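FW: tagging you since you asked about this chain on Friday. Here's the raw sequence from the shared folder, copied in full. Didn't touch anything.
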Amino acid sequence: MALLPTRKTTVLVSIFSATLLISACQPKSDTKNEQKSTTTPATQTSIPALKAKVVAVKLPKNKLCLEDGCTTYNFQSVETNQPWIDAYFSERIKKADPNAFANLPDQAVKLPARMPQDGQSMIYVRYLGQNYNLASFELFTYTYSAGAAHGMYHKEYVIFDLAHKKHVTVADLIQTGKEETLLDRLYSYNQSWLDEHSISREKLKLSDNYYYGNDGIVFVYPLYELASYAQGLTELTLPYDQAKDVIKPEYLPSQPVVQSP
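HL: got it, structure written out here
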């Protein structure tokens, strides 16, 4: 699994610039990420080497106009050698913006003439890498509604257990009865930043969004939850040496990390 750089916040400008660059490009159907399959010595369970490529999501039309404005769609997903992963992201994208798939007839826009009438909806799925039985993906969404002051974006990291063919949630990740201990350590390690933003231990809740960083497990908080919009998504790190007795062993990185191209 790719280990991503750890940082306290993600700056909107850099993310949005990267998003615009991606949206200007066609999906690369020949891009693949491959690793050699591995076997657990104790159980001889074969773990598949994941292969993934970017694919464009087919829509009835790329622009839809309703009374509250027009929306241009740009969706990209992944095609892997694991159909259950492909189906997972297909369902997530359809639920995220059902209008894009409904093949609705265009309507006359009824916004005031001075108000922008065009909006955007972008969804990108990106394969990050594999670490033995764990495969990491990023689900990026950006929406701008016609007439809004600014767009809203989010990055969700999706971790799959390839051995059991399941999405590993935060609830799956933590050992029974260890959530408060984890929060205590998360607060202590990130206390300087949290104090600067007037967030006490009592106010700190555990995010349901995480990835494996260079120095530890990184919990990602949505816009506005812990900081201002301008400061972006907040990221708090739990160092690996503090995670060993609170995170289930099967969900701690144990193999050399394979960086995706």
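FW: The longest strand covers residues 118-131.
HL: agreed, and The two ends are 12 Å apart (CA to CA).
FW: great, closing this out.
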